[in-house]
Structure formats: C-alpha cells, structure tokens
Design goal:
Arc Repressor Mutant, subunit A; 6 helices; 3-stranded antiparallel beta sheet; homodimer; 3 strands; 65% helix; DNA-binding; extended; mainly alpha; 128 residues
DNA sequence: CCGGATCCGCCTAGATACTG
DNA sequence: CAGTATCTAGGCGGATCCGG
C-alpha cells in the first residue's frame, strides 16, 4: 500500500491510472462464473457441454458469453476441429499462469479477511 | 496458480472454498467507488462533505452506503465528535495496510494486462 | 452439439429532493 | 453538516425457445 500511495500523492494523474489498472484487474476476474470456469478448465480442456456439466448451474447463454470474455482476455483458447458435427474444445492458455500471484494474494487476503470478519462478528455477539 | 491448483484438484470442497476466499477478496474491493474512497482517505482523514468534494461525482446516498461498507470491512473508522452540530471524521484504519500486497499485485497484473490487450488490438488492426 | 435470440425480473447505481 | 427518502434507469443474470 505505502509504495503505491507514495507514488500517487504527487499527482492525481498517476493515482487515477493506478486505480484504473487495479480496476481492470478486478474487472476481468469479476462475475459469478469467471473463476469457476478458469479452475475447471485448468483441470482439463473440455467441450461446451462438458463445461456446463462441470460448472453447476450455468446456462448456455451465460457460458457462451463468459467463454467469449475469457477468450478476449487471453485466458482461454477456443479450438474448432472440423469433424461432423464440429468439435469445439476450450482450453486454458499459458497466459493464464500470469494470474498465479494475483490469485494467490487474493486467496491469502480473502481467507485472512474472512477470519477477521468472523472474529469481529463473534465479539459483537458476546457483547449483546 | 500452480500451487493453488495442486491443492484444489484432490477435492472439490477445498477448491470451492478457495474460489470463495478469492471472491470475498474481489467483492470487498469491487464497485466504482471503493478504491477512490480508500485512496482519498489514505491521503488524510476527512469529513463527509469533504470526501464528496474529493471524490468527484459521488452522491451522498452512495457515499453513505460505501462508507458503511468500508467500515464493516474494517478499512474505515467513523469518528463522531460531540460538537454542535456533530463533527464526523472518517479515517483509514491500520487494517487497511493488509491490502498492500493484494493491491500491489492487482496493480502489476492490471498494468501488464492492459499492455497485452493493447498489443493484441494493434496486431488485429494491422491484419485488417 | 453448440450455441444465438428474445424476453423478463432483480438488483443496485444514480438523480433529486429533503431533514434533524 | 451529515446524511435519508423516493423514484428512476440500466445492466446483468436467468428462463425459454430457436437455428445451423
């Protein structure tokens, strides 16, 4: 935090660009299905209907849209094989590995934060 | 990524809890105003109307709600001084420092990703 | 089999006005 | 000054049906 902030205080331009970079990162991971999809495709490449099986509750429309998003962001490759009918396989790209540290940090902080919240809830309850 | 994934494949329970921890982290930072508010309060503690000045375009209702969110998550402390009329100062808590590494990673990855996207856009344009 | 098209309900952000 | 109250709008996710 300190490091980022120190850079930001001098001028507002840079601060905004920092915020925007962070927001971009948050944005591409956001939504109900992005993470489940990435994780299921990390296990193995799959076809459309397979993915729908793996990720419980997602509808074709949303799946289609989410896969398109992931493809545009370079996380997923859509491979079409000219069988009859065509076979479409979705696979994770090596670029997804760049997410490693972000996801790890998010996981660590999220876990820690959950414990913190739970603890503060408990204290509140004790008082009341 | 690899580290997280390796832990996840064995059982689905743990995978889901990982995803949820990450989602929690994403959730508390998400939205249009959370980051701008955190950053402006990092510069200095401020009163309600001051914040509204600092963060361009936010309406009182939204500001009120967002501050409440930030307070519940432990990032912001609401200090009421019994003047007449009351003075309310919002200040950043030390707990916000725990965001340091997450935000830094998000910033790094977001910047990198933006460059990547821009580059791939350029290539597309060259072809067409 | 792999989606696209259409319609719909909900949630939430925002605008505006107002109050203790 | 520090918010609330009320209303509106739009975007997202979901359900359902349709087509190559």
């Amino acid at each position: 935090m300190k490091a980022i902030v120190d850079e930001q205080i001098p001028n507002r331009e840079k601060c905004l660009s920092n915020v925007n970079a962070i927001r971009d990162a948050l944005f591409v991971l956001n939504g109900k299905w992005k993470l489940p999809l990435i994780f299921t495709l990390l296990e193995r490449s799959q076809r459309f209907n397979e993915i729908q099986q793996s990720v419980q509750g997602i509808t074709p429309k949303i799946l289609s849209k989410e896969l398109k998003d992931l493809e545009e962001n370079g996380f997923v490759k859509r491979c079409v094989y000219p069988t009859t009918p065509v076979t479409v396989i979705y696979e994770i790209t090596p670029y997804s590995d760049t997410l490693k540290s972000v996801l790890h940090e998010l996981y660590l902080w999220g876990t820690q934060h959950r414990d913190m919240i739970r603890e503060s809830m408990r204290k509140k309850k004790d008082v009341s």
